[in-house]
């Protein structure tokens, strides 16, 4: 992955021309170049039944090529993306939140 600096942030280029990883943007998740729109966001909408046209309607600043490249990135990097999806889930964060709440409650007593 090639790295450049953009507005003081490290930009990691990927093998996909429209997809980058920017330090401090989207928690380092892959995003569409020139935006803060995460690949995960596009994939989630597509998996929920949105067509490419629906996604273009929702994100008029994107091109069809950018959306297709986001979907392609997902398929080419399944293990990375599956981990990102897992860490973005309620099931992943639920026990962590409960532990923090429990510790906070104990500190108050």
TrEMBL record:
Lineage top rank: taxon: Bacteria
Residues spanning the signal sequence: none
InterPro entries tied to this protein: DUF433, Homeodomain-like_sf, WH-like_DNA-bd_sf
Name of protein: DUF433
Organism expressing this protein natively: Desulfonema limicola
Organism placement in taxonomy: Bacteria, Pseudomonadati, Thermodesulfobacteriota, Desulfobacteria, Desulfobacterales
């Amino acid at each position: 992955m090639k790295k450049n600096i953009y507005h003081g942030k490290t930009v990691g280029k990927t093998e996909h021309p429209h997809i980058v990883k920017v330090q401090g943007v989207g928690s380092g998740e892959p995003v569409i170049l020139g935006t803060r729109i995460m690949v995960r966001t596009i994939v989630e909408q597509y998996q929920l039944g949105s067509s490419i046209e629906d996604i273009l309607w929702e994100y008029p600043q994107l091109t069809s090529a950018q959306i297709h490249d986001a979907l392609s990135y997902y398929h080419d990097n399944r293990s990375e993306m599956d981990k990102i999806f897992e860490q973005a889930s309620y099931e992943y964060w639920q026990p962590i939140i409960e532990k923090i709440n429990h510790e906070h409650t104990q500190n108050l007593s």
